[in-house]
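Lab meeting, action items carried over

1. Structure of the two-component assembly. Owner: GW. Status: complete.
Input record:
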Amino acid sequence: MRKFETYGGALPGLNLDELSGWLIVIEGTDGAGRTTHVNRLRSQLGRLGYAVAETGLTRSDLASKGIRRAKEGNTLGSDAFNLFYATDFADRLERQIVPALRAGFVMLTDRYTYSLIARAIVRGADPDWIKQVYSFSLKPDAVFYLRIEAQDLVPRVLASGGFDYWESGMDLPMGNDLYESFIHYQSRVIQELDSLAREFRFETLEATRPVDEVSDDLFRLVSSILQSGPREIDDEGGRPMESVHPKERCF
Amino acid sequence: MEIPPYTNGDGDGRALDDRRSYGSHLNSYPGRLFIVEGIDGSGKSTQLSLLAEWLRSEGYPVLFSEWNSSPIVKQTTSRGKKRQLLSPLTFSLIHATDFADRMEREILPALKAGAVVLADRYVYTAFARDVTRGVDPAWVRSLYRFAVTPTQTFYFRVPLEVALRRILAGRPRLKYYEAGMDLGLAPDAQQSYRMFQSRILDEYETLVREFGLGVMDATKPVEGQQRILRRAIEPHLVGLRRERGLYEEV
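Predicted assembly:
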């Protein structure tokens, strides 16, 4: 039987046997087309009758506001920032991802722990430490890595409003030139993601190809995963379908 | 129960030789780091402020750092507490975030500058509380790996009933997480608080053995404890920069 597991740590109070559903992760740097592909997948899978939910970085109830505030002031140290992101992730894992998986949803995740680990390493965190911090996270069914070179990101970034301070790594000592810092920073992030891709066996998709082509590949790959069927829930307290209230009409 | 007198633990976290865990960031800076730990009502904060006063009067540069006080992170923590959004995991992580911010912006710079850093609660508070809440002990120890190991930690050991009497005498309105209501131990806040504190006390005893924390008998009179504290700290102050000594002897 397929079962969810974590990367070695524990999620306090959670019985992993209660989780069915699928956890599908789209990874890649900014401008790699993640949002486009998540949206497309969402409607394609919805049309096939799957219940689809979605989450992405810094969208937690708990920490999203605080992270935004901390970024505005550029006042938080790098360890604190890494842990703030981990708090945000943990909140979404427990309050968005886990409930969706419990209910048998396909959970599409626009970036997972890997982007956060890559960023942390580029900012000087010890790779062992930051991986250990995230060891409570669930192993996804698949990670699709939209890969692109830093140089190819530039036109996309310019089209969508220009260089962002953080996405250009301006908080790092990479010089005052926004363009050069952007290339340098993104190259380092891509380098780390490449190494995580090998370690955690991502499915890498060349993101510079035409959008439709990438999208078709993605849909085909995700569909084949979903065809393996949902996980069987080993939930003692759960009611089997037959025991619905007798007065309810069953079709 | 007979409470042993103050014992001199090594306080450098030697119990953990795992390089991936708390205890690997040794204090190689000119400053000194002293910690007080213990449950609510153990009297540790009173002792620490008396100590701070004395150190300042002796001319030492003192930095005081308090648990859960990072100006940026605190807002998120209190939001999480007020709305009861925190799980054992996010409770643990948000406090580690707060601690990391203070480590980077208060504690480390002060240690580098050769100051005496006094911290009211440190990683051991997280170890005791988070593990009581069901968080994996090894995970929370690795979470705090970046924390500098203290020069000396003082654990204020107090029987549960004494601490409870001190805290509950004023009939306080206990807050949800403070009372450990999130653990579902008891429906009544006071009863839950008692059970929660008792479990934390047990965890602290584990930590005393694991990290060789110095134990203070917190049932002794305030002045007596302060005397012991100063005597224990004095040898560690040798070689520290002082401001007043220059003028005193004139």
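2. GW to write a short summary for the group page. Key points so far: Confidence is low (pLDDT under 50) at residues 1-17 of chain B. Chain B touches chain A through 34 residues (CB under 8 Å).
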